């Protein structure tokens, strides 16, 4: 997930200043060449040792002054200790459960907007649903059609979640969970137990 996120950010014109994996991290305040970095990872199996970058520990990376931080691999990485070090304006949870409850409270207190995992990394689940629909209909969509449908679903979900968060003055996480519970309850009322 992290490699894809870095590539998307770079493709959209963002400056990717640091990345890490299980072996360590690399940083370059002027920006990393993500395409070359991905080639390096394919050749070596790690981001460590990438040219035109300095080494950085995974913990120090979490405290860099950046706009967006994407924890994309490890559960519970933003806890009561590491969350205090976060200086990003946004945390986009690419991993499942990268922020603990206490970490979430600290980030909220510090004004960091957290895009929760249930929203930020839902793409795989959505595409799995598309596969299920296609299999049931014996009809196949092109890769472009799937990408278009996925983009629409992700944008729509974020719009719904952010609108409720603003309206109710709650976090994006609380908003996403409230919408999820509401939709399951509505489906249960309409359909009964499934199947």
Characterise the protein shown here.
The protein is mostly helical and 195 residues long. The protein has a domain at 1-56: 3-Layer(aba) Sandwich (Rossmann fold), CATH 3.40.50. It is built from eight helices and six strands; from the N terminus they run αββαβαββαβαααα. Strand 5, helix 4 and strand 6 (113-115) form a beta-alpha-beta unit. Helix 6 crosses helix 7 (143-168). The longest helix is centred in the last third of the chain and has 26 residues, at 143-168. The two termini are 33 Å apart. Keywords: Oxidoreductase.
Structural class of the secondary structure composition? mainly alpha
User: What is the H/E order?
Assistant: HEEHEHEEHEHHHH
Q: What is the CATH domain class of the domain at 1-56?
A: Alpha Beta
Estimate percent helicity.
40-55%
Examine the coordinates and then state which fold CATH places here, giving the name of the CATH topology of the domain at 1-56.
Rossmann fold
Gap between N and C termini = 33 Å
Query: Oligomeric status of the shown chains?
Result: single chain
Radius of gyration: 19 Å
Give the second-level CATH assignment, the architecture of the domain at 1-56: 3-Layer(aba) Sandwich
Largest sheet: 3 strands, antiparallel
Number of E-type strands: 6
Kindly report the average pLDDT value.
95
**If strands are numbered along the chain, what order do they take across the biggest sheet?**
1-2-3
Overall form: globular
Strand content: 5-15%
SS element count, helices = 8
